[in-house]
Write a structure and sequence with these properties.
318 residues, Pseudouridine synthase, 3 domains, ten-stranded mixed sheet, four-stranded antiparallel sheet, 16 strands
Length: 318
Amino acid sequence: MAKENSPAARPPQVRKLAVAAAEAGQRIDNWLLRRLPGVPKSHVYRLLRSGQVRVDGGRARPDRRLAEGEEVRIPPVRLTERRAPIRAPDALLERLRAAVVHEDADYLALDKPAGLASHGGSGVPFGVIEALRGAGRHPFLELAHRLDRDTSGVLLLAKSRPALLRAQAAFRAGLAHKRYFALLAGRLAGPREVDAALVKNRLGGGERYVAIDEEEGKPSRSRFVPQAQYRDATLCEVEIASGRTHQIRVHAAALGHPVAGDRKYGTREQHRPLRALGLRRLFLHAHFLDLPAADGFLRLKLSAPLPAELREFLERLS
């Protein structure tokens, strides 16, 4: 039986909440998803489309950005009980502390290990952001961008709402420079650029899959510049002008040279020579991030060298 004062026992009621200073600039759909734990995302968007959510008495589109002091009306919605946050193992927290490459009053940057998700979900109880929030050191902490679970390298987190908005604006406008090291299967002749729109959440074999689709996809561009040639592979530096899910992986496969170790977008035949030499992970590493100065923030340049296991693998190539 539910306790008398539990959320499950109380009938849902209309709530009117004021937007806090730290929440100013946030999209209302994201704001609602945080305020309505356990409510399906589809239902949150249905509430917005139907006009049941009001901001200062008026309808709000999902992409509307909130301002401090505005009043948001939330219709009656039954919430799930909040569970205590899952604390990451001490060994992982120590690993993340050792991975810090930069910290100031506004940002925290890590050299994210491969195999660790940027955030939890889809059966993953926690990622970098949940682990660091659970440690309780920072009153505000948000991902400024994301890296695939199997990609290592520079991951930027914001420690304030203004810092988050500054970083997100730079990413959206293409002003942030992101460079990766990627080992491609086969020999790539000369620099190559791929300008191909990508659409995500197509299912292939029951898994999330990203595909090139010029009609429905979002614009995406990647430039591959060879740095070293090997018998069965090419080490490239990759600069991306956008940051779509699996962008480098899909664009590399479109060149006919998938990222080494990428089982989703490459074939066994393409990866067999490299796997035989001991490659057991995706060879993709975000080694450089440059945010320009803006709105009172200084320029931020971050770097992370190739992990030891990737450097050692290159030494085994001929």
